Amino acid sequence: MSSVAKAGEAVSPPAAEPPKGRRGLPVNLRQSGIYIAFAIIVALFAVLTDGQLLSPGNISNIIVQNSYILILAIGMILVIIGGHIDLSVGSVVALTGAIAAVLMVNHDVPWPLALLLTLLAGAAIGAWQGYWIAYFGIPAFIVTLGGMLMFRALTLTVLDNQRIGPFPDDVRTIANGFLSGYLGNIGLGFLGGADLFTLLVALALVGGFVVLGWRRRQGRIGYGQQVDPIAVFAAKNALAVVVVMFIAVQLARFKNLPWVLVLLGALVLAYTTLTNRSVFGRRIYAMGGNPLAARLSGVNVKSVTFWLFVNMGVLSAVAGIVFAGRLNQAGPTAGTMFELDAIAAAFIGGAAVQGGVGRVIGAITGGLLMGVINNGMSLLGAPSERVMLIKGLVLLAAVAFDIWTKRRSGAAR
């Protein structure tokens, strides 16, 4: 075709080139990197521990021992998506656990009422901090740093610098208990017996996961958005199904589903729906991505910020109840360093330092990754300083990876 068009001839536009940066790996590294890293670390520790990491009892222990960090990570990922940070959650965990202990143990308040009052106390703490951040304009870092000190002091005051316990059996069951085998056990060949109810719950979960993933994919195709190739989509779902069913089989072989896992599952489902399908969730992302643009588009940034911290206070109270119930007592040093673990889980799980990016399931994966490192190093007999070193390096690598992927995607445009 001649490079010069004749007069009067319409010149057809050149064929659109594929956008740069789409070639290479068929997966989005920024979204999938945490899951790849998690799989590698699990496989590594499984080999180093001769399979102990993936034994039925140890998998159950990993979930139960890290449940309160995972609960905090759900709230923290929302705060970070909104462009803020919360350094006080460890102290709030200690204070709310102390409030629950004083109500139930010292004043014989029925445990359901005591738990409700504890959640309300967590909401009040979050509202206190949210007011200063949202309506007075003090940066969240400063407010929650002050809160970390104040709420720890209040914990010492409430407990009179003593440990209070034991908790009622029902509260301990929430943190340490397991569901009963409602449908009995079935044989799994060389694996032995397993709880049928747990297996059916897992099958329903993976079935719903696959259906929702397919519907989301079809919706994106309908809107002309880019989606993974069908082979990549199928591989991702197959891997997720295998992982979930493996964990379910191991739990079913041990003591069935932990109650705290049921609680976590409900929270993950609720907050994933909140972030993906609600107006409030979209406003959180908009506020974190560009606060000025969000405000100009009609988002009440102050209100969203306020309720983010109220929510963080409530989830901190839930974590405080679970942690105190697991230890069967409330203590002055409870929750120490929990804020750092929750923040690390969020960033390792894909949250962006500047806000506006992150997923609830990513934060859960990040928290589990830290839990696997703790557990695996413990099984290997590693000293605590080496565990802290590894966790610090993993956090640094996660943030560096986030910055690298941003620069890479920016250079590809």
Automatic annotation (TrEMBL):
Topology within the bilayer: Multi-pass membrane protein
Which InterPro entries does this UniProt record tie to the protein?
ABC_transp_permease
UniProt xrefs under Pfam families: BPD_transp_2
What UniProt keywords apply to this chain's record, in alphabetical order? Answer: Cell inner membrane, Cell membrane, Membrane, Sugar transport, Transmembrane, Transmembrane helix, Transport
Claim: Transmembrane is one of the keywords in the record: yes
Where in or outside the cell is it found? Cell membrane
Asked if the Swiss-Prot or TrEMBL record annotates the protein with the keyword Transport, the reply is yes
Major localization listed first in the record, in broad terms: membrane
Q: Write the protein's name.
A: Xylose transport system permease protein XylH
Transmembrane annotation, as ranges:
32-50, 62-81, 87-106, 113-132, 138-159, 196-215, 227-251, 257-274, 304-324, 336-353, 360-382, 388-405
